[in-house]
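Hey team,

Filing this mostly as a record. A colleague (T.K.) asked me to run one chain through the structure pipeline before their review meeting, and I want the input and output archived in the tracker in case anyone asks later how it was produced. No errors, nothing strange. Just documentation.

Input sequence:
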Amino acid sequence: MSSLQIPCPQCGSELKLRDRSLLGRKGKCPKCGHAFVLEEPEEVELELAPVESAPAVGTAAQWVPDQPTASISSPAPAFPTLDQPPLIPALAIPASAAGSSLVRKKKHGSPAGWILTAVVLLAAGGAGAYVYLNPKAAVTNAPAPPPAEPAALPAAPAAPAAVAVTASPTQGEPIDLKLIPFGARVVIHLRPAELWVDKGWQQEFRLSLGPLADYLQQQLKALTGRDPELIEEVLFCLIPNERETPPDFCMVVHLKEPARRSDLIEQFGGERVEDFGPPVYVTGDRAWFIQDEKTFAMCPAKVAGEMVDAAGRMHPAAAGIDELLPMTDHTRLITVVGDVMQARLDSRFLAPGNLNPLFERVLDWFGDDVETVAWSVHQAENVFYSQLLARNRTVIQPRKLETILKGRLDELPHELVTLIRYMQPREAGPRTVIGRVPAMTKVVALATQTDIGPRHVELITSLPAKAGPNLALGTLLAWDESTRTDFSRTMSAPPAFVEKKLPDKVADRLKLKMDFDYRRSPLQDAIAFIADEIKVEFRIDGDALKAAGYTQNMPATFKMDQATPMAAILEIAKQNDAPLICIVVDEEQKQVTLTTRTFAADKGLKEFPLEP
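Output structure:
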């Protein structure tokens, strides 16, 4: 076997590695003595960068929908199409964590593997564990019900103007890897106490996850010895092990309230070891360390010294993880950071059994051009927020990767339309919700904003708070139905779409009552929502707005229930001190033009009276 030449990140000298099984472990430079994680060097291919034209920026947004859309919700990263229900066996851990060690069985799913799968499904919308716990998952011989007809996908506005990336609803410090040994390749950070509040949006979001939330609750308690509502933060990390064996599992727990040290020692049990300075408690192949009354950690006993040493400083992880962690926020509910290649190598441990196809599909969505990802999700009272950071490999530029990922997100709703037409839910309620999933995903694709850094791409999605529970329920039901759907059969032509009855006149449609929930939504997006709801083509006269000192990006932030589109337009104008804004209605063309009074008068157009 040929040896690897690994450059020292400190001085550039090469360290010769003869055994590839040592990759992921700590090494020391023979020249300068710098300690670092041994990683396989990337192969860099030089190629001419293609000439990319600047993105089109229009002066007017236009929305031309032809069919109704579903309510706003948020996306699943990939759609599972398994041929059998996913079975989730019990973890190889004791029924009670108190006074016992975590037992890991080789070539089976590690505890963190099950946690990772649950967390990915949770962040994606909560679709996976439903079938395992759903008693109605078995296929019956009842007559086939009608197929789930997907709701029409919303149309995209033509040539939208560039808008600033939505600000984060949280402003916390980055996630750190204190108390974690060298070489972490997967990082999972949760805030259980916030998710397990039995009221308000927290309860609604958790209930929409169905059995998945119960499953995660059980595993958190088994691993930490505490109910989720008592855990402020928990950090799980996976470190590569020898080939063909599960990765090592480490954990750091921050409690909401102080615990007595004697109670923690009794919970961990095992032998007190003082070889590393502060005592650790070794139980089997696991070592526990108490930092203070609210913080304790666990890791394999063989790297207990590294855990103690990391109490005051952070050890290096994989290079990509070290680069993306400073851009994370520890106050978000769910964050997953991982090395994509390492996740592929360990996929049978991270997502064992029938969950593996779903996990592989998520990895396939990122493709071979992404080295590391950091995905965080936050649900609050007034917003559902998702941030995806993708670190590109050196063979591709961030701008090109941005185009690739946005294209995959844009194509996802159309793929879902095809898959969902195969499904035949037996109950009317699930059939309706499943039919809306592609439209929900399309809304997310339209709402997603992208940005690039020196070596990463950022995808930000910000939607109304109801998007989180809606997506969770929709993807959960769709996953359930996919497990008993025959996707190989020949599909008949879809039934003709029946339009929702709307008033004939545009003027009457502008008086229809609906709900508005805007949070710094650009004018063009706010108008696009109205256009889709009343099925009328809207034009924004960009020249008129510019002449009056207005822009298509001026924001709207308000919530109005059962209000008319006219009232919403008036509120947008009021918030932006834009009294000259008006609309012109063309009944013959079924078109509305948003312009200014000055331009309307100059062109001899009749201003349509806006009523509150």
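Quick notes for T.K.: Residues 43-109, 125-143, 157-164 have pLDDT under 50 and may be disordered. The two ends are 77 Å apart (CA to CA).
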